[in-house]
Write a structure and sequence with these properties.
The complex is a heterodimer. Chain A is α/β, with parallel strands linked by helices. Chain A has four helices and nine strands; from the N terminus they run βββαβαβαβββαβ. In chain B, the strands form two sheets. Chain B has a four-stranded mixed β-sheet with strand order 2-1-3-4, with helices on one face. In chain B, strands 5-6 form a two-stranded antiparallel sheet. Classes of the chains: A alpha/beta, B alpha+beta.
């Protein structure tokens, strides 16, 4: 999928069993429970979800839960509950079809879609998982541009993290 | 001292840890070559008692022992830095302490 392409639609269940898919300007964030990169960037993703009211944020866990039980739906549910809830739904991609359709490489791997469902940004939240002060700057730049009806100045960055755990 | 760095290709963190390890060994005056051991399968992970990438072994012992219940598998290892942040790489201060303990 290239920048400007229509992103695949989907419907996936969250930890409460409700179905979600892209709607309006959307951030599709492939992530998981067991990857230190995903965990290091997690709070920055949640902060962005709180700050961008009106943008649909979807966290998707695509990992093979048989080999990695820490990424099972039960473990996802426990994590969200232990955190007292998240500001975005945490979806399970059990068949990995959505991750394959998006060609997700790592956790995290972020995709920003405009209101027409076209891909406008793909990559990492920001330049360094070690530096919380970066505050998901690349994601925020992309969202600011899309919400202003402009093309992000930096439409692609290299996703950095643990490889998606394919079946 | 025998120094090994066990790594798995699904996790991009081992080059940074290798850099930290070589630097600390040099600063501590330890004349050791770091043996790189690539772990390629879950079977090998179990044989090597590999809790995730990267893992440093000093004289055959995990320099920063994982929790006892941690499974051995192809995964990225979760470390905690000294300020509490989650990290895919160990805190250099913890590596240094382990080198000093083993020397």
């Amino acid at each position: 999928m290239n920048i400007g392409d229509h992103a695949p639609g989907f419907s996936l269940p969250d930890t409460d069993g409700r179905e979600h898919g892209p709607q309006g300007v959307t951030v599709v964030a492939f992530t998981c429970n067991h990857c230190p990169y995903a965990l290091a960037w997690h709070d920055r993703l949640l902060d962005a979800a709180r700050d961008y009211d009106g943008v649909t944020f979807l966290a998707i866990n695509p990992n093979d839960a048989e080999r990695y039980p820490a990424d099972s739906m039960d473990a996802m549910r426990e994590r969200v509950s232990a955190d007292g809830g998240w500001p975005l739904p945490y979806l399970r991609d059990e068949t990995q079809e959505v991750a394959r359709a998006y060609d997700a490489k790592t956790t995290p791997d972020l995709f920003v879609l405009d209101a027409e469902g076209r891909l406008r940004y793909r990559g990492a939240p920001d330049a360094d998982h070690r530096d919380p002060s970066l505050n998901a700057a690349w994601l925020r730049e992309a969202l600011d541009a899309v919400l202003a009806g402009e093309q992000p100045a930096r439409p692609e960055t290299d996703p950095v993290g643990c490889s998606v755990k394919w079946r | 001292m025998r120094v090994e760095l066990l790594w798995w290709e699904g996790c991009p963190s081992h080059p940074e840890t290798l850099g930290d390890l070589n630097r600390i060994l040099g600063e501590e005056g330890v004349d050791a070559h770091v043996e790189l051991v690539e772990v390629k399968s879950d079977d090998q992970a179990r044989r090597e008692r590999f809790p995730g990438s990267p893992t440093i072994r000093l004289d055959g012992q995990d320099a920063l022992p994982a929790d006892p219940g941690e499974p051995f598998s192809l995964t990225c290892r979760i470390y905690r830095l000294r300020d509490g942040r989650v990290s895919p790489t160990p805190d250099p201060g913890d590596i240094r302490d382990a080198v000093r303990r083993t020397r």
